[in-house]
Amino acid sequence: MRDDLHIDLQPDRHGSLGKSKEQKDQLVKRLKRIEGQVRGIQKMVEDDRYCVDVLVQLSAVSAALKKVGYSMLEQHTRGCVSNAIKSNQGDEAIEELMKVIHQFSKS
After folding, report:
1. Can you say how many angstroms the Cα of residue 43 is from the centroid of all Cα atoms in its chain?
2. What's the confidence (pLDDT) of residue 1?
3. pTM of this prediction exceeds 0.70
4. Which strand (E) or helix (H) includes residue 28?
């Protein structure tokens, strides 16, 4: 991994500024649905299901995770990054955003 793309986790930061309760609930609901899909895939493997069927389900989970990620990127940009720009801390927030977009686009 290149050091210039490394993004440290920020346990001291809280992300509630960019998400309403409704948005947060919707993200959690989507993630729980994805969790169920992953368990279903695990069962398919355990039951020795046809490889193509498993691959189709893996693709669906991957797409669902991407959708959650893009939603979080949008909320982060509209909330955290926007607030940082308004409080004259935009350069750091934009740099961090660009790193996470680059990291996200690699997956």
Report:
1. 25
2. 44
3. yes
4. helix 21-46
